[in-house]
Amino acid sequence: MSNNLFSKQMQDELKALKSQLGTSGRDANTQNADSKPTEPVSLPTKKQVKKTVKQFDSKHIDDDKVLFMQAMAGVKPLEDKNQISPTNKPKKDKPDATILSKRAAAQGSETDNNISGLSDMQALLNPVSGDAYLSYKSQTLQNKIFNQLKQGKLRWYDAVDIHGCTIEQAREAVIQLLTQAKQNGESVVKIVHGKGEDAVLKTCVNGWLRQIPEVLAFCSATPKDGGNGAVLVLLKRNKI
Predict the structure, then answer these.
(1) What whole-number distance in Å separates Cα of residue 156 and Cα of residue 136?
(2) pLDDT in tens, 12-30
(3) How far is it between the farthest Cα atoms of the chain?
(4) What are the b/e assignments for 162-201, b being 16+ CB within 10 Å?
(5) What does the pLDDT look like over 199-235, one tens digit per residue?
(6) How far from each other are the two terminal CA atoms of the chain, in whole angstroms?
């Protein structure tokens, strides 16, 4: 509706109201930006707004919008206390030595003392022939016990035959045999690797066993137990 339908007095009051509302909006924006308004916001009362709108009866002045602007003037958004500031995140307590030792014991159930994680490369760098006699002894083992192992006087409890296996399959079979032996408290086991033209599995077994701390000694078996196509392995006894 154009302004020429109103009297001059109404037009002046309308301009004054619009000017007042514009000033209030600018004051509200300034207050939000600085967070510290220097002057109080002056707004018409709800009664005054209703009276003016009713008097003008104009679509250019919306009653609901004016009242909403009046009600929301100077309102600040509330701080969201449900979000944690990166600088105020709670610090996690570092586990002490007792907790760390318990975790290590729980995680080392089946792969204690590095039975798993054997290096094929380290084994294959030291190839052996199919007819070679394998022999290994740790420095802590008595020569008397090692000689008993070589003579076949120590009884072996369990064995695995890796003939025809791939290197991956053979490694898994050896790890499983040694793991079960430790769990069952067995001290001597036998691994049948065969000879073969290239003796790849024999080479791997020879290299793998040298990487395992639980292995005290191993040697090629006596003829009755497979000769140079098998090894007898002496393991550390479980601590009670």
Answers:
(1) 17
(2) 777 777 676 666 555 555 5
(3) 127
(4) beebebeebbeebbebbbebbeeebbbbbbbbbbeeebbb
(5) 999 999 999 999 999 999 999 999 999 999 999 999 9
(6) 100
